[in-house]
Amino acid sequence: MIKILSSIVALFSITSIMAGEVHTPPKLVVGITIDQLRGDYLEMFQHTFGDRGFKRLMSEGLVYSDTKFNFPNIDRASAISTIYTGSNPSYHGIVGENKYNLAKNQEVSSFLDEYYKGVFTSDQYSPLAVRVSTITDELKIASNGQSEVFAFAPNASQALVSGGHAANAAYWVDDMSGYWASTSFYKSERSVVDIYNKTPESLFRRANSISWKPSIDVSNYNAFPYTKNIYNFQHFFGADKKNAIRLVKQSPYVNNEVRVIAEKVIEENTLGTRQNPDFLALTFYAGPYEKSLDKNYSIEVQDTYNRLDKEIESLLDAIDKAVGLQNAFIFVVSTGYYNEQEIFDDNYISAGGDFYPERSMSLLNMYLMALYGREQWISKYYNQQIFFNRKLIEDKKIDFIEFQQKAAEFLVQSAGIQDVVTSHQMLHGAYNQNVEFYRNGYYKGITGDLYLELQPGWRLKYEDDKLENHYRVRDNAIPCPVIFFGHGIKAQKINRIVDATEIAPSVSHRLRIRAPNAAKASILKELF
Q1: pLDDT digits (tens, 9 = 90+) for 254-312
Q2: Which domain holds residue 366?
Q3: 211 vs 299: CA distance, rounded Å
Q4: Is residue 290 part of a domain?
Q5: Is residue 404 part of a domain?
Q6: pTM of the predicted protein model
Q7: CB-based contacts of 288, cutoff 8 Å, min separation 6
């Protein structure tokens, strides 16, 4: 009988091994988020890349062709929050970089926290706005605090989310000084970064002397067949002292800053040498430069990708030197949007028109006055959302569900508005695909009472906005691959769309830790 049982156990053991490899945790995890990275640009610009940066990741990694963020108004804060929590804004609470504070009647950072002081900055932020756990939080919990976690990013939101609530430290580039800044929320010592901030090589010391010009012969930047002129350019950031750092953060020089400090921390903090895995969360920038002469097909964007390719190459070499790439688990993901301002010829006649939010709100309020009395029923229009005067509606004992529905029925008849979704529909109404999409971006107490979906091709304009070219609505997605590379990863190209909520549980699976507490998506099967 004992022999029979032993045989059965052996059979199950062999079957388990044959079914799939059991992966040990890596020594070092490097999460690379590239703000506004476009998969089509990676393909179009690759003739300017070397062999050891993007090409190496694409040829030796597990590459998924595209990522989907299933909620409206994606930006750098909401996207990276979804990547690191494995949940949508309806759970993690970050609906955007900024939010409208109804009580104070002002726009504020989603991460504003006056309880904590800034470190090398006057800004006061904390990660407490993220209402659920992150990958990095779960790693800290699993290792009983022994794993070291550091995050570096151009902007505070990116650093705070990717570092999470339990990081050793999270840093961003301060808009005013260029210092690597942080918050007193994190209690660990910051000697490496503090020392770097005071050296001549810091961005604080160099920003006014940096100029940006093509890194290779500009004739190589020929990826866009409709570009009228291929021109040499040179941008002097120091010439605009007030905005110098902000402009640097829209250039490839901020990527150099992120890479340099990351390599210093890998070396000085000996990341990847402890019993438990360490985690380094990095954010790079691949979006447009606001002062580009040709915003549609920018030469600057091609130079940004070429320079970023070299930063990735240097980073991979540094990781290889420190722990060996076979001991590091690296994932690369985009934020899934692109801030492109389109320029049209004066003779171009759009199929759409101009949508003026202020005018639409005035008309809506007049309609509500006719129904419910001469009052100011609308508190604010913000980011395609309408906030109603809830206290007034409550004092007048008006049925709020009916009030919302009447307003939505009126607005949906307006030119330029495709659909209007009420908060009641999102929370309690009959679901359809469109309602679910907006529901994923809704967080009670932060988002508005109505969501407006504008029609593609329409131009969003504000009365006091002096810009000649305004944002035009586009519903087509930006292709953005997800890449897994390094520890136990076999080279594959998978032609399917990954939901952004699948990334966190998949990374957690490779770390052999619990997924973040609001992550419900399945693990990507190729990572088993």
Answers
A1: 999 999 999 999 999 999 999 999 999 999 999 999 866 555 468 899 999 999 999 99
A2: 354-460
A3: 16
A4: yes
A5: yes
A6: 0.92
A7: 36, 250, 295, 298, 300, 301, 338, 339, 340, 341
